[in-house]
Amino acid sequence: xxxxLIVEDDEDIGAVLQRELTKDGYEVLRAVTGTxxxxxxxxxxxxxxxxxxxxxxxxxxxxxxxxxxTPVIAVSARSSIDDxxxxxxxxxxxxxxKPFDMKELKARVTAALRTAExxxxxxxxxxxxxxxxxxxxxxxxxxxxxxxxxxxYAILKMLASGDGRVISKSELLDLIRSETPDCTESSVxxxxxxxxxxxxxxxxxxxxxxxxxxxxxxxxxx
Length: 222
Prior knowledge:
By secondary structure, the chain is of the alpha/beta class. The chain contains eight helices and twelve strands. The longest helix has 21 residues, at 102-122. The two termini are 27 Å apart. The relative contact order is 0.09.
């Protein structure tokens, strides 16, 4: 369930937005001032609907405190092109003018959440209980961190990106060369062996399969 924070000082508009979005299955939080909205950022909303002319912090001021990864849709009576351009270049993902059509607003909320989710997942590769966060260079299995060397991580990431196909030792070396220039074709097998041992310490699942005479693959059905 996505959590939406509404920052709107008009009680009627805020109530309508809360009612309609709750009906669609969202968890909805409300703030009536920019200052209150800032205090509620700790609730980690997945999306923020924000008026601009707010008591306390203005919408523009509040925007500077919102994490960049949190999508913000400005909902305002201000309709000039300059206002829209300013907000969109300052961090808002969308801008809708009051009065608005509820169906249109809901569609924009859905689109913004979908885009944000896509960005969030774009840096993650999953295979069974294994998850590779390519942004943080972290690997977890069943929620437990797998401690790897730079070369082991590069090998695992390339195998996981192979969609289950077999990757030869020479091809694997070419793929990881930019990340691990010290790795050689003769040492790939050693690194893979060490990687498999570390995985074995966290799970009984055999994620890496050696294909005799060809190379290695990450089991896609793990």
